[in-house]
Structures are given as structure tokens and as C-alpha cells.
Amino acid sequence: MKKKKFFVIMTALFSSSLVLNSGVFAADTSKPRDEQIKWTINFLKKQANQNIDDVEEEINKVNKDTSIEKFDMSKAKSRFEDVVFLGDSITEYLKQANILDASSVLAVKGEHVNNAKKHLKEIKNLKPKQIVILYGANDINSSSPEAYKESYIDLIKTIKKENPKVKIYVQAPIPVDDSKTVNKDARINNESVKNLTEKVKEVAKVTGVGYLPSEGLITSKSLYEPDGIHLKYNFYKNWLFYLSENI
């Protein structure tokens, strides 16, 4: 315990040195420099005097996985044990690859957002704390963006009515590899994905649920399957790491 406290105090002192030398202060920058320095030193002293166990607990909460390299996919089932995933074949892979428990992945190949209500009973029985919803891969060429939006809003309102305490997140549709999808269907392109993404943002705003952007999840075109829509295992590591830090 003494070593821990010494470490925290030294960290605070080291931080104060960096802060003072860099001229960057936690205090109100409109105040004179002397007041800024005094405020910053007092702030750091308070951090050093906190209960060490409490500090450590907070650090562990914030820094569950500090980098994608440290994210352990073998622990994903326990990490997301209170989360239900709702979606189409992109989400379905989570159970096909045994990444998550099959019972918590309510996703079916070819499913559209307006089919999702059939999972309501399962959601109610599972009693999740959180739900992550990802639709769009099949909606992109089967309905208008506005119809997609209205179906999404209806789905979320229904879920919230039956499960008022659950926290819901809507994931923006995943970008596609245009160079491959255009050969199958010209409508499946990233301009269409962008249009649906804007609708998902509107859905989140109207319903008050959390919005999860998908920019940055595709780190390489090598993550795509040959059809340019479906994704390989390493994409799911990117996705779940992102979710572990943001929900």
C-alpha cells in the first residue's frame, strides 16, 4: 500500500512538473499565471491524497484495454455477457465464429430492420443491460432511407416500451468495398452507406439512444470478404474493442 501511495504521489509531482513547465494548466486560463499554478498544484495534491484503492479502481474502469493489441477476444463473452446484439449477417458472425454466446446474438442472414421485432420476446427473456443494433447491409438496396429510418424508430420505441431500463446503442452501417460491391449491385456503395448513416444519426436523436459511428473500424481492405460487404475475423476484434471502450 505504501508503495502504491508513493507511486501516486510521485506521479502527481511529476505531472505537476510537466504541467508547470509546459504552461498548460487545469485551471481557468483567464486567471493570472500565479493563480493558475496555485490551482494546478492544489488539484494535483488532492489527487495524491485520494484513497489509493478508489484511484486504482477508477483507473481500471477507464483503462480496461489501453490498445487494440491488448484486447483479448477470448474474454469477449464475459465482457459482453449483459449485452444483446441485434442485426443481420454481419452481426450473426459473432455467434458463428463463437466470439459471443449464441443466445445473445439475435441476428439472421438477410434480415432487415423492419423484421427485427420478431426478436422482442427473446430480448425480454434475456433481460440485457445494453443492446447494440446494427442494420443496413440488406436495407441499402431494398428500401428508401426514409423508410429505413421510420422502421428503426418504430423498433427502438417498441423495445424501450417493453424494456424501459435497457440502454440502447445504434451502430452506423459498416462501409463497403465499392470496387467489389459494384459488380453485384450498383446501389451498394459508400454513398448509400453514408445516406443510411445520416438516418441512423437522426434515429438516435429522435429516440434518445446512443449513436456509435463506424468510421475507423475498417483499417484495411483486407478485412473484407470477396463480396465487399461481409467481414473477416479481425474486423470483429476492431469492433468489439471499440465497443468495450464506448458502451
Would you kindly provide a written description of the structure presented here, covering whatever features stand out?
This protein is α/β, with parallel strands linked by helices. The protein has ten helices and five strands. It has a five-stranded parallel sheet, sandwiched between helices. Helix 1 runs antiparallel to helix 2 and helix 7 packs parallel to helix 9. The N terminus is likely disordered.
> In angstroms, what is the radius of gyration?
23 Å
Distance, first to last CA: 32 Å
Class by alpha and beta content: alpha/beta
Overall outline: globular
Binned, the helix content reads 40-55%
Strand content: 5-15%
Number of strands: 5
Outline the biggest β-sheet. 5 strands, parallel
Mean pLDDT, to the nearest integer, reads: 84
Oligomer: single chain
Q: Please mark out the parts with pLDDT under 50 across 5 or more consecutive residues, or reply none.
A: 1-30, 55-65
Q: Could you name the key traits of this structure?
A:
10 helices; single chain; 5-stranded parallel beta sheet; 247 residues; 9% strand; 5 strands; disordered N terminus; alpha/beta
Topology readout:
Blueprint: H1 2-22, H2 33-48, H3 52-62, H4 76-79, E1 83-87, H5 89-96, E2 105-107, H6 120-126, E3 130-134, H7 145-162, E4 167-171, H8 178-181, H9 190-207, E5 210-212, H10 233-246
Helix pairs in contact: 1-2, 7-9
Provide a concise account of the structure shown:
By secondary structure, this protein is α/β, with parallel strands linked by helices. 49% of the residues lie in helices and 9% in strands.
